[in-house]
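Renewal narrative, Specific Aim 1. Our central claim is that a sequence can be written position by position from structural information alone. The example that follows is taken directly from our test logs and has not been curated for this report. It begins with the structure tokens describing the chain, in the order in which they were read.
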């Protein structure tokens, strides 16, 4: 990746960051309007993540976030935009897919995160996670990028 693009990368997870989301998504919605396809925004929030940081420490939390980023990459297409939105929230932008495919992707992501086990070497604990997931669609739910993200976030 070129150095100029590093401003769009989350250094912990190596996913795109929030800055990228609000640069990319408005352009993608313009293209979707011109070419008449839909755009889906999925928001994922790791349930109880603050307690994990408080109980096992931020180093453990960082490792979990990296592993969740890997799970997202492994279970979505390369062209789907995977973004660390903030803290333990992630966004995925998927273009030109039907609702059946989106529901299958959402179900797979929830299952993969729920099946994930992290063995913390410091505490010897096995940590499991669950995830909440919200979905919003362009143009059905909103035509503005910020509104679309907000609706997906509220759908959590």
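The sequence written for that structure reads:
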């Amino acid at each position: 990746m070129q150095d100029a693009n590093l401003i769009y990368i989350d250094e912990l997870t190596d996913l795109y960051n929030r800055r990228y989301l609000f640069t990319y998504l408005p352009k993608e919605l313009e293209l979707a309007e011109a070419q008449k396809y839909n755009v889906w925004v999925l928001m994922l929030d790791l349930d109880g993540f603050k307690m994990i940081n408080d109980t096992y420490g931020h180093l453990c939390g960082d490792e979990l976030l990296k592993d969740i980023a890997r799970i997202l990459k492994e279970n979505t297409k390369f062209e789907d935009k995977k973004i660390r939105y903030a803290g333990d929230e992630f966004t995925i932008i998927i273009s030109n897919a039907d609702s059946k495919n989106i529901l299958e992707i959402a179900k797979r992501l929830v299952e993969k995160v729920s099946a994930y086990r992290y063995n913390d070497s410091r505490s010897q604990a096995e940590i499991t996670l669950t995830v909440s997931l919200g979905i919003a669609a362009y143009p059905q739910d909103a035509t503005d990028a910020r509104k679309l993200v907000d609706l997906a976030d509220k759908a959590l």
